[in-house]
Design brief:
Elements (H helix, E strand, L loop, with lengths): L3 H56 L19 E6 L9 H12 L5 E5 L1 H8 L4 E2 L12 H16 L5 E11 L2 E10 L3 H4 L18 H77 L1
Parallel strand pairs: 1-2, 1-4, 2-3
Antiparallel strand pairs: 4-5
Helix pairs in contact: 1-6, 4-6
């Protein structure tokens, strides 16, 4: 049986762990709110770009075709997948769900672009080709990071080295449900450019300067940046939600452990008191005899 000193040391350690898990939960809550707010603030801008691209693609079918699928008859297509994981652990099953999803969707030998240290370390030990990795701040995804990723993907696609780009991220449906999801990044699809927050009336006619193709080439990377930024923020929000849940469960376990340790401490103290009383009574009886 542990002594009272041992129990006090363990209780002190569990209490410190409880303070850490509580603080991490509060930090994740703050990061989640900030990330969702940033996404809502930037969404109208990227939706306006999407509406412009759709208008150009609809009115000028022959313009900017290189951004769309022009290799449908190609037998062997080179496909690359951008995989978004977190830069650190302590997020429950968040990273494991992403890696398991990628392994089921991408056969061995596939080209991956890992975003996040956890995913990079995992896939380095697997039979995959890691084309490039992009460090993303653990504090909050930035538009700058999304722009770098979009520029890299655009350059490979337009040069013909990669025929298709996809993005795997974690979509947050609710605070208790986050699931990995795969979306297409390149080539662009006219159907996915339709609609949006700033959908324009078909009766309105626009004139683009200097021409439709030049403007499309200018706006397409910005649209891709918006798609990637949205995926980064969604994945970041899912990560923080998973970490909040994990830290909340850890805090509850720590509290339950402290209660058990307190009970053990009380029993040990009672046993020590009982032993001392027994010694006193035995000593008094010996003196009386």
């Amino acid at each position: 049986m542990d002594t009272m000193r041992d129990i006090r040391v363990r209780s002190r350690s569990v209490k410190q762990s409880l303070q850490v898990t509580t603080a991490m939960k509060l930090i994740s809550t703050s990061k989640l709110r900030k990330a969702r707010r940033r996404l809502e603030e930037t969404r109208p801008y990227f939706e306006a770009i999407r509406a412009t691209l759709h208008d150009i693609a609809e009115r000028s079918a022959g313009e900017a075709t290189r951004w769309f699928d022009t290799k449908k008859d190609k037998k062997v297509r080179v496909c690359a997948t951008i995989v978004i994981t977190s830069g650190r652990g302590l997020a429950g099953g968040y990273n494991h769900a992403v890696t398991r999803f990628v392994e089921s969707a991408c056969p061995p030998g596939s080209i991956l672009l890992p975003i996040g240290t956890v995913g990079k370390r995992y896939f380095m030990e697997k039979d995959y080709v890691l084309l490039e990795d992009f460090p993303v701040s653990a504090k909050e995804p930035s538009v700058q990071a999304a722009r770098d990723i979009a520029a890299f993907a655009s350059a490979l696609f337009l040069s013909g080295k990669v025929d298709e780009f996809r993005v795997v991220y974690t979509r947050m449906f609710s605070s208790v449900k986050q699931e990995p999801e795969m979306i297409s990044l390149l080539p662009l699809e006219a159907e996915k450019l339709e609609g949006g927050f700033h959908a324009r009336p078909s009766s309105v006619s626009y004139t683009y300067m200097p021409n439709e193709e030049a403007l499309f080439d200018l706006l397409a990377p910005k649209f891709l940046k918006g798609v990637i930024y949205g995926a980064l923020v969604e994945a970041f929000a899912s990560e923080q939600t998973a970490r909040m849940t994990a830290m909340d469960a850890a805090s509850k376990n720590a509290k339950a452990m402290m209660e058990r340790l307190q009970l053990l401490y009380n029993r040990a103290r009672q046993a020590a008191i009982t032993g001392e009383v027994s010694e006193i009574v035995a000593g008094a009886s010996a003196l009386g005899d």
